[in-house]
TrEMBL record:
<dbReference type="InterPro" id="IPR036390">
    <property type="entry name" value="WH_DNA-bd_sf"/>
</dbReference>
<dbReference type="InterPro" id="IPR000847">
    <property type="entry name" value="LysR_HTH_N"/>
</dbReference>
<dbReference type="Pfam" id="PF00126">
    <property type="entry name" value="HTH_1"/>
</dbReference>
<dbReference type="GO" id="GO:0003700">
    <property type="term" value="F:DNA-binding transcription factor activity"/>
</dbReference>
<dbReference type="Pfam" id="PF03466">
    <property type="entry name" value="LysR_substrate"/>
</dbReference>
<keyword id="KW-0805">Transcription regulation</keyword>
<comment type="similarity">
    <text>Belongs to the LysR transcriptional regulatory family.</text>
</comment>
<dbReference type="InterPro" id="IPR036388">
    <property type="entry name" value="WH-like_DNA-bd_sf"/>
</dbReference>
<protein>
    <submittedName>
        <fullName>LysR family transcriptional regulator</fullName>
    </submittedName>
</protein>
<dbReference type="GO" id="GO:0003677">
    <property type="term" value="F:DNA binding"/>
</dbReference>
<dbReference type="InterPro" id="IPR005119">
    <property type="entry name" value="LysR_subst-bd"/>
</dbReference>
<keyword id="KW-0238">DNA-binding</keyword>
<feature type="domain" description="HTH lysR-type">
    <location>
        <begin position="6"/>
        <end position="63"/>
    </location>
</feature>
<keyword id="KW-0804">Transcription</keyword>
<dbReference type="InterPro" id="IPR050389">
    <property type="entry name" value="LysR-type_TF"/>
</dbReference>
Length: 311
């Protein structure tokens, strides 16, 4: 092996392949093609004199040497990328940048309204629902299809940074004319009534189960909804109950004629995290975007504060 430091571009390509787990995804991230990625890896292999990847099935897996190399170079590569990003310019008054984010339902309209109110109407936001599949939850972030995500759990990935946006309460929701629930709900009633639940998990567990020790597996589940709103709408027209973030329940309480209750069992508040790629820490445009999301979240929290106190 030569004592010369390998070409930075080759190391950057290698780092992208390690982060993305495949040549094709690394090519997408770097806006190039798979052939270019493959050629760069061959050149790096020759420069350092070590095997980096071996074929397995239709893809490749890193060797132990590649794993060790990546652990040692990922931080300086991200820092060097950050230097160049910080030297770029971003003018929020003139930019025509489109930002892309995935977000829980109860925050989507808040984010869209925030961007719609900006003086520069050429700055735009595109919002996606949260991924349904745990196995690919961060895939669109790692491939930079998303600029950021808002999630309820801290990500377990070395390339991802996070910041707490806010903490929110839950509300049990049922219709005003419910035949058995009026004015209050007990834990026994909560477990006895039929539930509408969100057909989505995080780390193989339904969202509410992350915040209470109550054995929710004993609930009587009647409906698996693809969205929180579909669950609320169903409950407004039936005798089912559901649990949603308080901020969303308050949005539709009057419109849909709903009763809201604090859960009659011990639970923790639900944290919301803004997550993004560490290598974008110093990108001026991305820093502005993160600050905009944080300001929007803070404003929403203040608006809901008085209503939450009366809940």
């Amino acid at each position: 092996m030569s004592n010369d430091i390998p070409n930075f571009n080759l190391l950057a390509v290698f780092s992208a392949v390690m982060e993305q787990g495949s040549l094709s995804k690394a090519a997408d991230q770097l806006s190039t093609n798979q052939s270019t990625i493959s050629t760069a890896l061959i050149r790096l292999k020759k420069e350092i004199g070590q095997e980096l990847f071996v074929r397995k099935g239709r893809g490749v897996v890193p060797t132990s040497y590649a794993q060790s190399l990546y652990e040692q170079i990922k931080t300086p590569i991200n820092e060097l990328n950050g230097v160049f990003q910080s030297m770029a310019s971003f003018d929020e008054q003139a930019s025509e940048r489109k930002f892309v984010i995935s977000s829980p339902e109860h925050l989507q309209w808040v984010l869209l309204n925030s961007f719609a109110a900006l003086p520069n109407q050429n700055l735009s936001l595109e919002v996606f629902d949260q991924p349904d599949n745990d196995d690919r939850i961060y895939e669109d972030l790692l491939t930079q299809e998303f600029d950021a995500m808002i999630e309820i759990l801290v990500p377990e990935h070395p390339s991802i940074a996070s910041e707490v946006l806010y903490q929110g309460d839950f509300a049990i929701v049922c219709r005003e004319g419910h035949p058995r629930i009026q004015g209050e709900i007990s834990e026994a009633q909560f477990m006895t009534e039929k539930h509408a639940v969100l057909d989505r998990t995080r780390r193989k567990v339904r969202s509410l189960s992350h915040y209470t020790s109550l054995d929710l597996s004993k609930r009587k589940i009647a409906f698996h909804g693809r969205s929180l709103f579909s669950n609320i709408l169903l409950c407004s027209q039936s005798d089912y109950i559901t649990v949603v973030p308080l901020s969303m329940a308050l949005q539709f309480q009057e419109r849909l004629g709903l009763q809201l209750f604090k859960p009659p069992f011990v639970y923790e508040q639900m944290s919301h995290y803004l997550i993004w790629l560490k290598k974008q820490n110093n990108d001026p445009a991305h820093k502005w975007f993160r600050e905009q999301v944080i300001r929007t979240s803070d404003a929403m929290s203040k608006t809901l504060k008085d209503r939450r106190l009366r809940f």
